[in-house]
Amino acid sequence: MNPKSSSKDIFGLALESYYTNKDKTPIKVHNKDFYDDEIPVEYLFRNYEEMPLLEQIAIDLCEGKVLDVGCCAGSHSIELTARGLEVQPIDISPRSIKICNKRGLKEAISLDFFELDNKKFDTILLLMNGIGIAQSIDNLPVFFKKLKDLMHQNSQVLLDSSDLIFLYEDELTEEDNYYGELTYEISYKQSISDAFPWLYLDFDLLKKEASKRGFLCELMYSDEHYGFLAKLQLS
Question: What region holds the Methyltransferase domain (predicted)?
Fold first, then answer.
């Protein structure tokens, strides 16, 4: 979660404070329908052994030239680089990219995924609910088209998301919008972002929407918290 609408660079501020001063003030996540949540900033600096199994599996599946989308503090890219892979980390947060550079990721650049052109990758990695950058069901065609633009026939996309159905129990009706379309604000200390849309998908819907756009979609892992890792390839 690192939205373009967060013009105050909330993630970057938190990463900078932690990297420079070991300030553990958490990032707070706000949604009007749920209790506030917190992201421990030190978690964004985790190593491979500290990553959840879903992320470890994704890292192990990466191959060739890797695009790390929403790289944040660069933890995934650092592990992949140590394994000898060529990695292009990108993030819309300028401060986050500066931290990546300081951590040794000299190729990390501040760039919106949807503005990346004229490059092809063997693996496109979108972790920490990477599908969220699509923002809504209606924007999925744009998201899938951009993936295709950055792929060759043998490329793979590794992304995770969560099925949020467990949050609603029996409250949903057919008239409701899709339950994975949410609106958030994030804050750090006295700074708060603008509201922004964020998307969570259940695996069946991801597979259906991907298939419409010429992708094969395979479930690689699911956990007890309704999270899953999927692999997309061109059909």
Answer: 65-187
